[in-house]
């Protein structure tokens, strides 16, 4: 609770029984508050279910959902879920009898990335699917027949409740239960965490953030207690984090950084060794167990920091041990001796290591990690990573949107961590600083900043409330007590004013965030800054006058009220959209655009099981999961050339596009068009990234061909190449484009190589079928393709590999 | 540099004298640590001879040696009576933690050994 520890001791030993009762009541209240925090975290994420329906959102969650289905299928065959059986009919059509968790590791998916396929077992982080699968299996064994989809939809809110409890534990280790409760409440509502963990957002971050905070909690607990038991638990929790998310590299780099910081600032202790060394060994082994990571856990540069600090830690531990054995003079002799020999040895090892690492072009780092360290790397070398909207740097307003009030509570939290500075609080500060840097690189990583910001704001608010409430409590008795305590304090003022100066300035900063005028009064009230017990206590506690402290408490409560209002608004209005269903309010009522599911359902019911569908990679996961058809590229984006092929096809005129798609056995092409309804993120707006990615691999696609004077236009001023390319002729047909706000450039054309087979109700998704080749080609040679190749070789110039 | 060699000799003498004063149980743990590290070095030398295939076996073998060495050092830290931070930790609890951590380590090793 927010009561400080001092008053129980202050009251004297006669109040021992009363103190115990108060502690018991405090504990019960704490537990009850935690329960409420869990319920809050769960329910604030349910807006999407209430406003729309219990459906899986966006793109990536559909893939996770499909993987979960496959890993559970043998278990579910034995239960009587009829809805699921209908969905699984297609699986049984393929006569794939082996499924379940063990076969999941060896699963090779042939319904995506045609004709390459994808080895799911070795390329997916299994934590989320195994967690949801276990949850489903547990519920079913208790005879609670929830469908897999329901469990998947609600996994994220359940784990966000767990994450807020983990935040309570972590902050309690650093600063006490009061700060813990505050931080847990703040985390339950913080918008940037809500954005990735609403009900229906079945993505890795839903469980990964819980694993992150829990791992940090166990690390700090081991650091504080020095118990090997918690070190083991820490390694196991780190294993769970590695299973869940690629962001585990953050942990395995942050903890070594903290160990290094502790060593450098002279805070080395044997507890540090116990906290770190077993984690490195066990953690590396456990990380190598996960197929996605495999041998990368010892071979890639992302993990080298942990090994380096491991070695440094052992050297430091040895040095301290020998220091304990020898006399100081001999120790100095030993040091000079060792330094001479050791330096030469270190040089040799360093030279070998550096040459090994520098020999690889990316210095051993993966592309994604490099794009984090160097923000401009992706735009120069990997246009695919640069084109994802989540990978853009955030703007300033997005910080305020994501963490709101915490943005300016965090600095006061940092200062509060320094009074007193312990290992745990230095860890929290380091965590915050690094996550601020990474969130500045990529907006998606604001999610990692959120727990740090919540913890530090919780600490700041708790410290502020501690001071203010203590002031209220000790000033509330009648004025006689006030004058008597003041009398004691005034006499001890000259001796203690120096000690109080720093405390006062700190407290005034934390408290007067909103009322700068109070600061002047604070300096005048300095003489009051001491405890009522008397001059025997070394550390004088700060006590403010009653009026300002009451105003301070009220202001802080109002501040928290603003925060809550913003969070609920963000959860309800901004983050509750499932992105598979769009709504639009008009004077005539609420319109629901369910075009995507309409298109996938059409595909599912009107095409053959083995037909291949080509679309831009955004829709790959949804197509495989809902339409159950083989796709060419999907959101995994592991093969740049394959995506570039599709991009080239979309940018080419009809004939070339037909050739490309025919070579890939494609039967249907799916495009998204938002012109009729004003949907802004359709394929025309994404077209430039198609051109860039295609141009990155096939040099005949040049971006300048599609821009008029450097501006991207699809109206009458569009370039000829733009107006002729496949995506344009496939998407447009109406006169006025509502998404872009101008008239279409080319109307009234006929498609020769494709025919439209389906357009959804609001024209958002359009499906085209490849027309089969004519049997008899009038007036041209049958060996047309071969002669064209030879003519291209003779002409030189731009080589189009598709002709 | 005669002073350096004489200094080194004095150093080694005082080191060995100070080390001889440590209790026997700690010396046993130290012996175990040395044995584990030596085994790891033998494995690395063997890997240098025959190549890295299968890499997972090599990794699990070396990391198991280093892992037990690290855990033994943690045990030594916790059991050492000179250590002020752990004076109210009963040595039985320290040993139980050591056994538990070793169990987890060897479970993982057995899984990864192939």
UniProtKB/TrEMBL annotation, chain A:
Quote the pathway field: Protein modification; protein glycosylation
User: Does the UniProt entry include the keyword Oxidoreductase?
Assistant: no
Report the membrane topology from the UniProt record.
Multi-pass membrane protein
This protein is called what? dolichyl-diphosphooligosaccharide--protein glycotransferase
Q: EC?
A: 2.4.99.18
Instruction: Give start and end of each Oligosaccharyl transferase STT3 N-terminal domain.
Output: 29-456
Q: Where is the composition biased (Acidic residues)?
A: 480-489
Which intervals carry biased composition (Basic and acidic residues)? 510-525
Q: Which GO terms describe its molecular function?
A: dolichyl-diphosphooligosaccharide-protein glycotransferase activity; metal ion binding
TrEMBL record, chain B:
Give UniProt keywords alphabetically. Apoptosis, Endoplasmic reticulum, Membrane, Transmembrane, Transmembrane helix
Membrane topology annotation? Multi-pass membrane protein
**Sequence intervals crossing the membrane:** 31-49, 55-75, 95-113
The processes (GO biological process) annotated in the record are:
protein N-linked glycosylation
Cell location:
Endoplasmic reticulum membrane
Which superkingdom heads the taxonomic lineage of this protein's source? Answer: Eukaryota
The biological pathway it contributes to is: Protein modification; protein glycosylation
**Which family does the UniProt entry place this protein in?**
Belongs to the DAD/OST2 family.
Q: Which organism is it from?
A: Eragrostis curvula (weeping love grass)
UniProt-listed Pfam families: DAD
The identity of this protein, by name, is Dolichyl-diphosphooligosaccharide--protein glycosyltransferase subunit DAD1
Which PANTHER family does the record associate with it? DOLICHYL-DIPHOSPHOOLIGOSACCHARIDE--PROTEIN GLYCOSYLTRANSFERASE SUBUNIT DAD1
């Amino acid at each position: 609770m927010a009561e400080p520890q001092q008053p129980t001791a202050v009251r004297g030993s006669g109040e021992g029984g009363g103190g115990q009762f108060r502690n018991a009541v405090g504990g019960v209240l704490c537990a009850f508050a935690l329960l409420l925090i869990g319920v809050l975290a769960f329910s604030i994420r349910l807006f999407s279910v209430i406003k729309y329906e219990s459906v899986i959102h966006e793109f990536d969650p559909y893939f996770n959902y499909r993987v979960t289905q496959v890993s559970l299928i043998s278990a579910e065959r034995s239960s009587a879920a009829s809805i699921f059986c209908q969905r699984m009919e297609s699986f049984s059509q393929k006569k794939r009898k082996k499924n379940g968790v063990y076969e999941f590791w060896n699963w090779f998916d042939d319904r995506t990335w045609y004709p390459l396929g994808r080895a799911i077992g070795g390329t997916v982080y299994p934590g989320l699917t195994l967690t949801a699968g276990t949850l489903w299996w547990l519920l079913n064994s208790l005879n609670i027949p929830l469908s897999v989809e329901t469990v998947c939809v609600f996994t994220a809110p359940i784990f966000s409740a767990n994450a807020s409890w983990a935040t309570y534990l972590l902050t309690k280790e650093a600063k006490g239960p009061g700060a813990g409760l505050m931080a847990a409440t703040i985390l339950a509502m913080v918008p940037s965490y809500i954005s990735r963990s609403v009900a229906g957002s079945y993505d890795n971050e839903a469980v990964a953030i819980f694993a992150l905070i829990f791992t940090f909690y166990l690390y700090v607990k081991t650091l504080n207690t020095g118990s090997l038991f918690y070190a083991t638990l820490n390694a196991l929790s780190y294993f769970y984090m590695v299973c869940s998310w690629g962001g585990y590299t953050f942990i395995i780099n942050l903890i070594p950084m903290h160990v290094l910081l502790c060593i450098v600032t002279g805070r080395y202790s044997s507890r540090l060794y116990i906290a770190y060394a077993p984690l490195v060994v066990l953690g590396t082994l456990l990380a190598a167990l996960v197929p996605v990571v495999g041998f990368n856990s010892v071979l890639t540069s992302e993990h080298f920091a942990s090994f380096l600090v491991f070695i440094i830690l052992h050297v430091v531990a040895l040095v301290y041990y020998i220091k304990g054995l020898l006399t100081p003079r001999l120790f100095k002799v030993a040091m000079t001796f060792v330094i001479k020999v050791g330096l030469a040895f270190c040089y040799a090892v360093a030279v070998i290591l550096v040459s090994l690492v520098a020999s690889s072009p990316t210095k051993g780092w993966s592309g994604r990690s490099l794009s984090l360290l160097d923000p401009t790397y992706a735009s120069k070398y990997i246009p695919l990573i640069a084109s994802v909207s989540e990978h853009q740097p955030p703007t300033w307003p997005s910080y305020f949107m994501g963490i709101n009030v915490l943005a300016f509570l965090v600095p006061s939290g940092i200062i509060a961590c320094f009074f007193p500075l312990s290992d745990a609080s230095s860890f929290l500060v380091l965590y915050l600083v690094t996550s601020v840097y990474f969130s500045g690189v990529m907006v998606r990583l604001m999610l990692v900043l959120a727990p740090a910001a919540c913890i530090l704001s919780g600490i700041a608010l708790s410290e502020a409330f501690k001071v203010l409430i203590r002031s209220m409590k000790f000033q509330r008795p009648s004025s006689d007590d006030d004058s008597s305590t003041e009398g004691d304090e005034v006499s001890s003022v000259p001796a203690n004013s120096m000690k109080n100066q720093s405390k006062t300035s700190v407290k005034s900063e934390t408290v007067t965030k909103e009322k700068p005028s109070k600061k002047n009064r604070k300096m005048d009230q300095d003489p009051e800054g001491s405890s009522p017990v008397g001059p025997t206590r070394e550390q004088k506690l700060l006590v403010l006058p009653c009026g300002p402290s009451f105003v301070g408490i009220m202001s802080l409560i109002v501040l928290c009220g603003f925060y809550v209002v913003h969070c609920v608004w963000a959860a309800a209005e901004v983050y509750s959209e499932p992105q598979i269903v769009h709504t639009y309010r008009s004077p005539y009522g609420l319109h629901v655009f369910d075009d995507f599911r309409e298109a996938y359902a059409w595909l599912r019911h009107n095409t053959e099981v083995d037909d291949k569908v080509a679309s831009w990679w955004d829709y790959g996961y949804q197509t495989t999961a809902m339409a159950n058809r083989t796709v060419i590229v999907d959101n995994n984006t592991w093969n740049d050339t394959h995506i570039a092929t599709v991009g080239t096809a979309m940018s080419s005129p009809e004939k070339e596009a037909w050739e490309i798609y025919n070579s890939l056995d494609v039967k249907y092409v799916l495009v998204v068009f938002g012109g009729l309804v004003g949907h802004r993120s359709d394929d025309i707006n994404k077209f430039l990234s198609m051109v860039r990615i295609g141009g990155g691999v096939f040099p005949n696609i040049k971006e300048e061909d599609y821009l008029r004077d450097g501006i991207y236009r699809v109206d009458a001023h569009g370039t000829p190449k733009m107006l002729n390319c496949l995506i344009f002729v496939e998407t447009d047909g109406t006169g006025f484009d509502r998404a872009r706000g101008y008239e279409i450039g080319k109307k009234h054309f006929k498609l020769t190589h494709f025919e439209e087979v389906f357009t959804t109700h609001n024209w958002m998704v359009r499906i085209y079928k490849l027309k089969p080749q004519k049997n008899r080609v009038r007036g041209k040679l049958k060996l047309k393709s071969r002669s064209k190749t030879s003519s291209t070789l003779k002409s030189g110039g731009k080589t189009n590999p598709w002709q | 540099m005669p002073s350096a060699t004489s200094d080194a000799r004095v150093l080694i003498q005082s080191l060995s004298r100070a080390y001889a004063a440590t209790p026997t149980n700690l010396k046993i743990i130290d012996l175990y640590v040395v044995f584990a590290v030596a085994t790891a070095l033998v494995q690395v030398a063997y890997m240098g001879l025959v190549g890295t295939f299968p890499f997972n076996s090599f990794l699990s073998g070396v990391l198991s040696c280093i892992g037990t060495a690290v855990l033994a050092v943690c045990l030594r830290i916790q059991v050492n009576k000179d250590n002020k931070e752990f004076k109210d930790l009963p040595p039985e609890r320290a040993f139980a933690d050591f056994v538990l951590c070793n169990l987890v380590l060897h479970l993982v090793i057995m899984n990864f050994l192939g």
